[in-house]
UniProtKB/TrEMBL annotation:
Protein name according to UniProt: Tropinone reductase-like protein
Cell inner membrane keyword on record: no
GO molecular function: oxidoreductase activity
InterPro entries: NAD(P)-bd_dom_sf, SDR_fam, TR
Record PANTHER family: TROPINONE REDUCTASE (PTHR42898), TROPINONE REDUCTASE HOMOLOG (PTHR42898:SF28)
Assigned keywords, A-Z: NADP, Oxidoreductase
Gene3D superfamilies to which the protein is assigned, alphabetical: NAD(P)-binding Rossmann-like Domain
Pfam families from the UniProt entry: adh_short
Amino acid sequence: MSTSREQRWSLKGMTALVTGGTRGIGYAIVEELAGFGAAVHTCSRNQQEIDQRLEEWKDKGYEVTASVCDISSKEEREELINKVSSVFGGRLNILINNAASVIMKDATQYTLEDCASIMSTNVESPYHLTQLAYPLLKASGNASIVFISSVAGVTGLPSISIYAASKGQLSYSVRRAE
């Protein structure tokens, strides 16, 4: 009996949206989902990063599409979901809310604008994106939603207090919604 991952299970025929998928954890998630056979759409604020990653994924034989999206923008989130609906024929199986923003400053140096920006990007945006994606997720008949949080949400880390608060809020809100 072989233990290769392709024989253990597959995501062939499944669709996924991963926000912030051109770097870090998001990049690794796109690689894993596509490696298991899912068709993946990702987004980034940076077209150059998208182009580089799409070339890499094409060379690996992965089925990945991408678009520019700043998830902190309500209009761009709406455009992203419209694009995903078009690419995946009105269905979405997996939504990974990964994209986030962090500003590193001492707690006393954060401005109200810094706070509003981080909370909007890290809490409001994934929540709203999930609301927008709901009809696509429901239409798939088999859906999963993942919110990527951080250890910063449960432990104090210097210079990222607002980020920590946003990730703590995200973790608490998702647990309460279950």
